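Fill-in record for Transmembrane 4 L6 family member 1-like.
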Amino acid sequence: MCSETGSRCTGMLLLALATAAIIANLLLYFPNGQVLEPAKITDLVWFFHGFLGAGLLVMVPALMLLRGDGDGCCAYRCGMLFPVLLATQGTAGALYCVVISSLGLLSGPFCDTGNGNYTYPFRNNTLEDSYLFNQPTWAACQEPEQIVLWNVVLFSILLGIGVVEAVLCLSQVISGLCDIFCGTCVRKGQVNITGL
């Protein structure tokens, strides 16, 4: 974690991904650009997996990585524990986004199937007859227009963002734990083996 260039690049990437996750989650509240009553929005959107999970919980370690470490960051193992805890928090938030996005893709959108009857027409499908692989079944959702495509694209984006964030944050956790337990650190061409 004490390699400043690598940490700052990771921090910038995490910050960009967290911002994209917040925007994607926000778009899920406005299917096809329409403003709907809260009761007509897919229930999994209200878990705030893009805002909270892949957004705010990942933004905190991203900002810490961008800030960089002060002089002597590797000299104190206790001082390296805080970034590891923040990266663990980011990993948990990203995994939360992955789980909710996967559930959102599997269960499908909340939509009007005709006569103003809002329901989840794809929620009880098995993986073999999933609506994801059978595009003609998307016509079951009549309102909001293109809601199935809207949900599939945005939940897929959030799923991808969550996976990348989880990998990046987990790599920071592993790097930090190696620095703490092995006592090695590369900073401006120096190697510190004592660690204390």
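KEY FINDING: The longest helix spans residues 147-182.
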